[in-house]
Structures are given as C-alpha cells and as structure tokens.
Amino acid sequence: MTPTQNPYAAVADSLQSARALPGPAYVDPAVFAEERQRVFAAGWLPVARVSDLAAPGDYRSADLAGTPVVATRDKAGDLHVLSRACRHRGMPVVQGAGNAASLNCPYHLWRYGLDGRLLSAPAMDQSTAFDVEACALPAVRHEVWGGWLFANLDGAALPLAEALAPLAERLAPLNPDRLVTAGVLTYESPWNWKVMVENFLESYHHIGPHAASLQQTNPGLSTRATSDSDRFSILENPGASDDIGSFVVAVAFPATLMFFTEGVAPFGVWYELCDIGPTRFTLNIHMLAPPELAAVPEIVAEFRDQVAAVHGEDIPVCEGVQRGVSGDLYTPGPLSHLEAGLWAFHRHLAACFNSGSST
Question: What percent of the chain is helix, strand and coil (3-state, nearest 5)?
C-alpha cells in the first residue's frame, strides 16, 4: 500500500495538530483488507470471558475479523484457542457456545478433542494423503488478561501482559477478573468498526446524544484521557458531584472496548465486535457484574435497560458519521483535547501500517 493509499500516513505527531481520519479509512474495502492482516491478525483480540469457560468441556465460538476460532477448556482444565475450520474441507466444527466432550464437524463427522487433536475421521483409510497427526485443528497463541481470554492470530505480538501493564494497574482496584457475564445485547451495526471504537473513546459527545442521560451524571467536558500509549487508552469520567459515581472507559487496541463503574461493587461492559466487514459488524454488548449481583434478576434487568438506553442514543450518531465520511465532500476536521483517545488509536493504526505489525 503506497503512502497515498495509506489512510493513516498523515496521523499527527501531537494531539494539538491531530485531525480525524480521511473517508477511505471507513469505506474502502482495500483498507479493510490491509487491516485484517496488519491490525487484527497482528494484535490481541478478545475471544471469551474466562468465567464463561468455567467447566471442562465449555466452549465459545468467535469470529476474529474473518477468522473463525473456538475457545475451549479441556478435561484437564487447560484453555485453548483453536481454528474451528475442519481440516477436511473447512466447515466450522462448532457454532455458538456450550459444553461438549468433543468438537464434531457436522459435514463429514470428523471429530476433534477439545485440545484440537483429530480423534476420528470416517472413510479415510484409502487416502495416502491422510495423516491423523497432521490434521489437528491449528492452535492459536492465547493469553489470559483481566478476565478475558485473548488470541493473537499471527503469533508475533508483544506479550499482552507487558503491553497492557499500566492499564492493568489502573483497573486493579475494580478487580475485572471477578466479574461474570450477566447478559448480552446484540445489535447489527451498519458502520465501520473504527466509528464504534472512536465513539467509545471519547465522552465529549455526552453534550450531544447523551444530553439528558450521561451528561447529567458525568459531564463530557470534565472527562480526561490519562494515557498517551498507542497500545491502549484510558478515559476517566468523574461524576457531576461527590454523590454521583465515576466510571472509567478503556480500549485495548485494536478493538477491546471496556467500561467499568467505580465503587464498592463495580459493574462492567464489554463491547465485542464480531463478523467485521468494511462497513458493518455485529456488536455483542456483554454486561459484566459481580457474581452475587449477576444472580439477582431485578438488578440485571435494570442494568440491561441502562446499557440499552445509552447505546440506543449512540446508534443514530454512529450511523450518521458513517454516512458523512462516505460522502465526497467530507474533509477530516481537527480533534479536540477531549478526543485524545482517538489520537492514541490513530497512532496505533499508523504504527501497524508503517511496520506491518502491532508489536
């Protein structure tokens, strides 16, 4: 990709001179094709919450920017991230989540262990090319962090714990490892994945779509980004008064979107971006809560209503941004100091495109 085709070539060296990204970053299929390799495959992507893989046999499927994988916990209690494309002809060996003794391809009934080993393959005895040892599901490098199981597709990224050490320190008082999934909201999202990340990374827009909600409790003009790292961004959101709780927003680049309330019993939210394409994706919003509160239906219902209401206010502006950046008259404008997280994100993308990796 030449400099003129690289939408991240002009990312500024300072926040004061930073501008929004050009339109092709959000609409060009060629840009997205490069992102699949340079950004997603080279980075760390969340596959599952570890608490959702609590028992031997538990599994959860995921799509990592076009690569189908499955996270499993085997009989010995070990975690794995595996390709879920059957080694025969590519049919996904499993869908969704659940608990099973093995992974069974529904096409020709090839059967795999939870560690990826091929256990059986009907009618392959006359093939001289068949080698049971060579037909295991490929394992994907993985790491546990913050209660998530992450995967790195190309196997070359900097260790996650090292890259996110300052973020882990900031979140430590909130103990995100302890939170469990209290529910999931799913939305089809007809906009580029970066529009979602950018919207999540700034609370400047509280003054607009959230004027009657978040702006009343956590004013947008009082928020502040506290890190200039190009691997993650932290956004502090203080309460409007001493009796209103604060919350912290964080994004581990490229696309792990986290939100946590601060207090005696913190709640959390994980925005999982699935089935990502050039101008669309499926959003799963995971509601995270302490186990004792996740077991109370009334609390979960109220939490769900709050999360749905906030995202409902974000949907029209994300759709609007996608329409705007798709037009011939769009020109990137300057960023506010309240959008420091966007600048950090853009620096991450620029580094990926300049080096070909996230490391």
Answer: 35, 25, 40
DSSP notation for 55-95: STTEEEEEEETTEEEEEEE-TTS-EEEEE-B-TTT--BS--
Q: Where are the alpha helices (DSSP H) in the chain?
A: 24-27, 29-35, 160-163, 165-171, 193-201, 214-217, 291-294, 297-325, 340-355
Mean pLDDT for the stretch of residues 56-72 = 96
d(CA 139, CA 190): 32
Place of tokens 């974000």: 314
Q: Return phi, psi of residue 75, to 5°.
A: -65, -30
Radius of gyration of the chain (CA): 21
Query: Rounded to whole angstroms, how far apart are CA atoms 43 and 20?
Result: 22
129/127 Cα distance (integer angstroms): 5
Label each residue of 177-221 as H, E or C.
HHCEEEEEEEEEECCCHHHHHHHHHCCHHHHCCCCCCHHHHCCHH
Rounded to the nearest angstrom, the gap between the alpha carbon of residue 150 and the centroid of all alpha carbons in its chain is 10
pLDDT at position 5, please? 76
Q: pLDDT tens digits, residue range 137-165?
A: 999 999 999 999 999 999 999 999 999 99
CB 300 within 8 A of CB 182: yes
Three-state SS for 248?
strand
Strand 118-120, strand 247-252: pairing: unpaired
- What are φ and ψ of residue 150, in 5° steps? -105, 155
* Domains defined along the chain, listed by start: 15-43+162-355 (3.90.380.10), 45-145 (2.102.10.10)
Assess contact for 300 and 287: CB atoms under 8 A.
yes
How many Å separate Cα 52 from the centre of its chain?
A: 16
Q: What global pTM score does this model have?
A: 0.95
